[in-house]
Specification:
Length: 204
């Protein structure tokens, strides 16, 4: 059985956020340290996040479960050698499969080395990943959080994050307002995101 790994942070980050945003304080106290599972494998995480584009978390969980059962080892060669129709049956659209296969081919042909990006700055990783068809800023940012455990990611394209901010601060979140909160929570935007996602899920 594989032991699950979780994003590592502590009271150092939460105490900082409490000082920066008093409205966030009761939610940090309520939820404590939030356990967010990570996947340290960059290639499978790219696939996971491409699959997860514009679908619900519950749908993603179901598809990913089927995907892992289909591919006991998620490697570029396994992806390349599996017919699109087989992957289609897992609930993944052809367009997304083509994106995934393209990245698998680039890795197999040694045109892209996922491990080479592991220690690069956030913006450089986003720049490199978004050069690939099918990977936008949100996909790259989710990989930064849930694979590389970067602590200062605040995704403008994340609907739930904006919803959490709007519920907490009772205000419309424009791009300019979003930037203000990004600066407020920095350098721990990722940890703030964890609590804002929980707030977004709460009933009105």
């Amino acid at each position: 059985m594989i032991n699950k790994q979780y994003f590592e942070y502590s009271e150092k980050e939460t105490n900082y956020l409490i000082k920066k945003d008093k409205k966030l304080k009761p939610y940090i106290k309520k939820y404590g340290i939030i356990k967010r599972e990570i996947n340290p494998n960059i290639f499978s995480s790219i696939i996971y996040n491409i699959i997860g584009q514009q679908i619900s978390t519950s749908s993603l969980d179901k598809i990913w479960h089927k995907f892992k059962n289909q591919f006991l080892q998620i490697t570029p060669s396994e992806i390349i050698n599996t017919d699109i129709t087989i992957i289609n049956k897992l609930g993944i659209p052809t367009r997304k499969i083509e994106y995934i296969k393209q990245i698998a081919r680039l890795i197999q042909n040694k045109e892209f080395n996922p491990e080479a990006i592991r220690n690069l700055p956030d913006e450089e990783i986003i720049k490199q990943l978004t050069a690939f068809k099918g990977i936008g800023n949100w996909t790259a940012e989710m990989l930064l959080i849930f694979t590389l455990q970067r602590k200062n990611i605040f995704s403008l394209k994340d609907f739930a994050l904006k919803k959490g901010l709007e519920k907490l601060h009772k205000t419309e979140i424009t791009k300019a307002k979003f930037q203000e909160f990004k600066e407020l929570y920095s350098p721990y935007c990722t940890i703030a995101s964890f609590y804002l996602w929980e707030i977004a899920k709460e009933q009105q």
